[in-house]
Amino acid sequence: MNKELSYQDRNIFYRVFGEGKTVLLLHGFGETGEVWQQQVEFLKNDFKLIVPDLPGSGRSAIIDDMSMEGLADAIKKIADEEGIDSGNNEVLTMIGHSMGGYITMAFAEKYPQYLDAFGLFHSSAYADSDEKRATRKKGIEFVREHGAFEFFKTSTPKLFSPVTIQDNPSIVKALLETLEDFSAEAVIMYYEAMMQRPDRTEILKKTDLPVLFVIGEHDNAVPPSDSLQQAHLPHTSFIHLLKNSGHMGMLEEAERSGLILKEFMTET
């Protein structure tokens, strides 16, 4: 079911599928909630799935505060709308891909009482390194000069593993086709927000919640070494390595990704 709500006088679009334990799937930068489509088909008979388009992506408008914390507040509004109420012990599992994981970490810091578990799917609790910030600044200048879609045509293929590029180039093409109408304004705001986000490894150290780490062996955006350094920090971690994936495991190894999510959500 497609739904919309008003937040800061802007429309936020999200999808709801199935019934049962509530799971909220957050997409990453340069994506929409459609990126989870194959996992939704696999999981919707067992769980209630909430899949938003983040503000500034897909059918959701840019909001006033596009920081990771501001985006977490918008996601809380969706949770409230869907009846999540920590006072009545109604909680959810949140899984965030890439930038969605940064938002998940901000949510876990601000609203831990809303969660029973959370996951970093090709994501990290680290702040941007100086090198990463410099790369994002170059990206912003490119977007200003050439537009968002030209930027994605250059950057998106680099998110996939060599195996995917060689054997399944149609996956890359299909993702790119969803990005033709992406606004330059949103891309720039996301990059600026990601550059400004703090290190949140303390959240991993202090949480009593189970944490899922899904790692792509060929991920250049979130290197496996970074993920493995963080995976031992929580009290309870579930760790999975996708050997044929780069940064887009939900597309590159869709079936295995669905199985990993189902196992995590069932066991927690």
Main sheet characteristics: 8 strands, mixed
Please tally the helical runs, counting DSSP H or I stretches of 4 or more residues: 12
Strand content: 15-25%
Q: What is the helix content?
A: 40-55%
- Distance, first to last CA: 26 Å
Provide the gyration radius in Å. Answer: 17 Å
How would you classify the helix and strand content by structural class?
alpha/beta
Q: Tell me the total number of β-strands.
A: 8
Which parts are unreliable, with pLDDT below 50 for 5 consecutive residues or more? none
H/E topology pattern: EEEHEHEHEHHHHHHEHEHH
Q: Estimate the mean pLDDT confidence.
A: 97
A few lines on this structure:
It is built from 12 helices and 8 strands. With 268 residues, the chain is of the alpha/beta class.
